Amino acid sequence: MSGRSHEEGLKDLTLLGNQGTTYSFEYAPEVLEAVDNLHPERDYFVKFNCPEFTSLCPLTRQPDFATMYISYVPDKKIVESKSLKLYLFSFRNHGDFHEDCVNIIMNDLIKLLDPRYIEVWGKFTPRGGISIDPWCNYGKPGTKYEEMANYRLMNHDLYPEKVDNR
């Protein structure tokens, strides 16, 4: 195989390779794009580490900074990474609590991809001496992935990471 063909979802992409890309400073889920998963017969994780996530406190409008970890097991679609970058950037002036941001991101990716499994973890830098690290997940109902989501939720963060690196 010499690579993905134009007919395998590339023709539908509008952002990748576009030199005139504009950045939305307001929440913009419509920028997310997906392509066909060429390996739907196999379970595998796709993981994104996004260390430059920013949003605003909805009350004070002070900036919040986080590393956003997004992991999913695709079904028929995968997210195009440039569109994901632009989507995450669109939170820059979005005012929401940390917990809301991770759930909004997960919900938008579920709507776009209908993945078998997904989890989103926001590791926010401390403000006022407290860091907030919300984590959420989802497994497709009625499948082994729903069981996996329940298991991972019940066993999440049994061994908290060291936080001396923030």
Automatic annotation (TrEMBL):
<dbReference type="InterPro" id="IPR050084">
    <property type="entry name" value="NADPH_dep_7-cyano-7-deazaG_red"/>
</dbReference>
<keyword id="KW-0560">Oxidoreductase</keyword>
<comment type="similarity">
    <text>Belongs to the GTP cyclohydrolase I family. QueF type 1 subfamily.</text>
</comment>
<keyword id="KW-0521">NADP</keyword>
<feature type="binding site">
    <location>
        <begin position="79"/>
        <end position="81"/>
    </location>
    <ligand>
        <name>substrate</name>
    </ligand>
</feature>
<dbReference type="Pfam" id="PF14489">
    <property type="entry name" value="QueF"/>
</dbReference>
<dbReference type="GO" id="GO:0033739">
    <property type="term" value="F:preQ1 synthase activity"/>
</dbReference>
<feature type="active site" description="Thioimide intermediate">
    <location>
        <position position="57"/>
    </location>
</feature>
<dbReference type="GO" id="GO:0008616">
    <property type="term" value="P:tRNA queuosine(34) biosynthetic process"/>
</dbReference>
<dbReference type="GO" id="GO:0005737">
    <property type="term" value="C:cytoplasm"/>
</dbReference>
<dbReference type="InterPro" id="IPR029500">
    <property type="entry name" value="QueF"/>
</dbReference>
<dbReference type="InterPro" id="IPR043133">
    <property type="entry name" value="GTP-CH-I_C/QueF"/>
</dbReference>
<dbReference type="InterPro" id="IPR016856">
    <property type="entry name" value="QueF_type1"/>
</dbReference>
<keyword id="KW-0963">Cytoplasm</keyword>
<comment type="function">
    <text>Catalyzes the NADPH-dependent reduction of 7-cyano-7-deazaguanine (preQ0) to 7-aminomethyl-7-deazaguanine (preQ1).</text>
</comment>
<comment type="pathway">
    <text>tRNA modification; tRNA-queuosine biosynthesis.</text>
</comment>
<protein>
    <recommendedName>
        <fullName>NADPH-dependent 7-cyano-7-deazaguanine reductase</fullName>
        <ecNumber>1.7.1.13</ecNumber>
    </recommendedName>
</protein>
<keyword id="KW-0671">Queuosine biosynthesis</keyword>
<feature type="binding site">
    <location>
        <begin position="98"/>
        <end position="99"/>
    </location>
    <ligand>
        <name>substrate</name>
    </ligand>
</feature>
<feature type="active site" description="Proton donor">
    <location>
        <position position="64"/>
    </location>
</feature>
